[in-house]
Amino acid sequence: MRFELMSRDSRTAGRRGRLTTSHGVVDTPAFMPVGTRAAVRGMRPQEVAATGAQMILTNTYHLFLRPGAEVIETLGGLHRFMNWNAPILTDSGGYQVYSLAPFRHLEHDAVVFRSHLDGTLHRFRPEDSLAVQVSLGSDIAMVLDECPALPSAKTELENAVDRTTRWARRSREVWRGPGALFGIVQGGTDPGLRERSAREIVEIGFDGYAIGGVSVGEDRDLASRITAHTAALLPEERPRYLMGVGTPSEILDAVIAGVDLFDCVLPTRNARNGMLFTRAGRMNIQREEYRADPRPPEEDCGCPTCHNHSRAYLRHLSVTREMLSGILNTIHNLHFYQQLMREIRSAIEEGRLQELKQKRYPGSACAATRGEVI
Amino acid sequence: MRFELMSRDSRTAGRRGRLTTSHGVVDTPAFMPVGTRAAVRGMRPQEVAATGAQMILTNTYHLFLRPGAEVIETLGGLHRFMNWNAPILTDSGGYQVYSLAPFRHLEHDAVVFRSHLDGTLHRFRPEDSLAVQVSLGSDIAMVLDECPALPSAKTELENAVDRTTRWARRSREVWRGPGALFGIVQGGTDPGLRERSAREIVEIGFDGYAIGGVSVGEDRDLASRITAHTAALLPEERPRYLMGVGTPSEILDAVIAGVDLFDCVLPTRNARNGMLFTRAGRMNIQREEYRADPRPPEEDCGCPTCHNHSRAYLRHLSVTREMLSGILNTIHNLHFYQQLMREIRSAIEEGRLQELKQKRYPGSACAATRGEVI
Q1: 3-state secondary structure B257-293
Q2: Minimal CA separation from A24 to chain B, in Å
């Protein structure tokens, strides 16, 4: 994997870059739609690509359980399995073990957990997570880390940082590619712990660095400040990835703080619940006021949903829980997110990231742009 | 609406025709995918059209309840509402009243029923059903009929024929278009009653004739014989529509008996349950044997699903209940049905409908081809 920084925003830490992988190029800052079980919910791969997405994320935990990494490997890897001919980032499975498994126990060198599907017991060492990700044929693999929910006691956060560093070191030692490997910085909301974690992870040395443990229970403003604080600790020449975040304004804040990669289930999950992202804010398409509204969801949107369908039709589909509802809403929301990323990239190139932020989210200056310290 | 008979199969009653409506042309024999609530489940309109479907069916009962005919009329009719720019046939709502409503009571000139959604009480006269279908902007409207489940006592079947004729007469009297109006023949499995019903309905005179009350509880062979018996009673120069039927072999049988139009939920509903139609028979894509099978569901199929995806991937999606499962399976099944109709139309043109039937379903000669009487 190659990462080039092509330009910088003159007044913020925002960067315009390009990731080159063996499956193609990703313009950064980039947003990755989430394809949990080797499918972005309700989307055919070409529809995902048509929104402008250049890379997706899939979940190692889910694919490890079903259909199993060996099945996907036999079939030529994840790209062929799901017919997605562009880069794929796989998470380590850690986050799902912590959030979904009905039982898990952390050992010195592994996490032991029960499947949320059938209760079968599994033991994942950092090496096992990487082996699964290699079987999947991931373009960017993530190290197995420990991500405590917030708030957590300081000792717990410290232990998580220790374990994350220890596992990152083991991961680095066994890693032979062929994809890239990203380390993950933990440390919760403690600035000092974030500094220690970043120092240790950067010292081990990875192809890119992720900021983990953000938006796991803490408030939005604190998350934004921790992100900015952590991003500034990471080497300039490597891509920075903020895991699992976020709303359009959170993404803008993080870009301003120097983050390059994002993933989040918001645009896809909310779509299935009838919530559309628009420039004017969130739109609950089920509202009575849209019952006979012939306008597209968003007047100036160029997506196929807005091009072909009215608010009234989308309301009807959502209210009657038609399958097509989630599909059309997802197309719109993914387009919205990709359009946001296109505007962000242009704004960086033209040195007007601040203006974009002020225009889109006036009055919500983020920690990074206020120059605040934590 | 215009209906031309273009050619006939030399050795069966099969006919190759063309329906021309103000929204376009339909080559017959034709299969209409079901778009119950103004959407074929999980399909965007252009995807339905891409399968080769030239006309769809939507359900008056469902659209009357949600979003309401007046909403759809305000928005310019059903075609614009759902962005389907080809012919639409609407049913009368009767069948759903009988099968879904938790309460219904038949009066001399109306059916009174409670909504299965909120229990509200409604009264539908034949005129009301037509008014709703006109508001929707239907290309082919159906008269409100009475369709008793089978088996039913002879008096019940007789009463249903009486009521169906009475309502058909009222419908004909008030009908002012602009679309076409089809009458419906009832009579259950009683050949004499079918003859009386057909005589009465044909005497009233409609743009086309439907065979109702088939596949509502009776066995397949009897259904096939009743269909053939009834089709032969209908005027040559008008389209004949077998409502709610059926499997590929049932459709072939009915075409051989001279039927022109079909609708059925089988290809779409079964798709969502993981059942694919193939030339080799039904395929349960969830079976363990497909776990790592790299082949397309059907080797020689030209549909986008078979072109892009493996059995292993489709199995994975179906087993994990991914939204994309129903979508990809529906695309295949609708393509399969439309491909069947294309082959049927070619076979009629070339005078080899019998051969097609024997090739596809050897040993299952239908009543019509056996020349049986009931």
Answers
A1: CCCCEEECCHHHHHHHCCEEEECCEEEECCCHHHCCC
A2: 19
